[in-house]
């Protein structure tokens, strides 16, 4: 089965990373729209045009299913895309529901991009599951820029996170939700500065499980001919070097890709 992955940039690689572990033998086409990243600080209508351009590109490659591995793109376009295209389209949203259901009398902090947090889709999600008003939110746009620029300097990232998290009494929180697919690249830096009892939650594994369920219900067979193609803003990365250096950050065994 041919699976299309799309993100505003390289953040969706954290989701692809889970897919390669759970579904290692499929054919994947990943499109990083990094020339237009970050999406989260741009006007909604501008971002929507970027999204449609990328999706049309992936449709032209005859993908069987599309994973929008981007919370921002999902929040502003997934409903319309499903009305336009007749293939399964899987979106992502911050794992607020999971965090609330597994919460133990603590508050929850959702981190994401500005645009994701402003969208009605996110507000409706919180309103639906947060009956006790325990969910707070925090935009962390710099993490997207750092990831796109391949900045993983521990001191720099920790310093940024400390400053952004300073207004929050983290002892009162039970979970931090990573509501942008770029953010899991920095799990270890989050872990360094938050109390041990605070869980770090993202939606990546759940998204891939959903993908697997859709594939199992499809009339198309699973593949045994693994292939991975990476496009960086429309340009094919012939040797997948960009992709590999980010997968290395995630410690994915090289034999997997």
Q: Would you kindly provide a written description of the structure presented here, covering whatever features stand out?
A:
- This protein is of the alpha/beta class and 257 residues long.
- It has two domains: 2-92 and 204-256, Rossmann fold; 96-201, Rossmann fold (3-Layer(aba) Sandwich).
- The chain is 44% helix and 18% strand.
- The strands form two sheets. It has a six-stranded mixed beta sheet with strand order 4-3-1-2-9-10, sandwiched between helices. A four-stranded parallel beta sheet has the order 6-5-7-8.
- The longest helix has 17 residues, at 44-60.
- The model has no long low-confidence stretch (mean pLDDT 93).
- Pfam families: Asp_Glu_race.
- Substrate binds at residues 7-8, 39-40, 71-72, 181-182.
- Keywords: Cell shape, Cell wall biogenesis/degradation, Isomerase, Peptidoglycan synthesis.
- GO terms for molecular function: glutamate racemase activity.
């Amino acid at each position: 089965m041919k699976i299309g992955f799309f993100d505003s940039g390289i953040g969706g690689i954290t989701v692809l990373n889970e897919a390669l572990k759970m579904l290692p033998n499929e054919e994947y086409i990943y499109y990083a729209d990094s020339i237009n990243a970050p999406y989260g600080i741009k006007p909604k209508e501008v971002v929507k045009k970027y999204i449609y351009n990328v999706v049309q590109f992936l449709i032209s490659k005859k993908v069987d299913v599309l994973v929008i591995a981007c919370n921002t793109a999902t929040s502003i376009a997934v409903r319309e895309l499903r009305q336009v295209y007749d293939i399964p389209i899987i979106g992502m949203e911050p794992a607020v529901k999971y965090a609330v259901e597994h919460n133990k009398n603590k508050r929850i902090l959702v981190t994401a991009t500005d645009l994701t947090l402003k969208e009605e889709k996110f507000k409706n999600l919180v309103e639906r599951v947060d009956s006790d008003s325990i969910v707070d939110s925090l935009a962390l746009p710099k993490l997207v820029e750092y990831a796109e620029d391949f900045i993983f300097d521990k001191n720099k990232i920790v310093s940024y996170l400390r400053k952004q998290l300073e207004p929050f009494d983290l002892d009162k929180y039970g979970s931090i939700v990573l509501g942008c697919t770029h953010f899991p690249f920095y799990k270890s830096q989050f872990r360094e500065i938050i109390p041990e009892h605070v869980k770090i939650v993202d939606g990546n594994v759940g998204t891939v499980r959903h993908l697997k369920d859709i594939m199992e219900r499809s009339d198309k067979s699973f593949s045994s001919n693994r292939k991975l193609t990476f496009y960086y803003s429309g340009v094919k990365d012939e040797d997948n070097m960009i992709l590999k250096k980010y997968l290395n950050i995630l410690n994915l065994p090289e034999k997997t890709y």
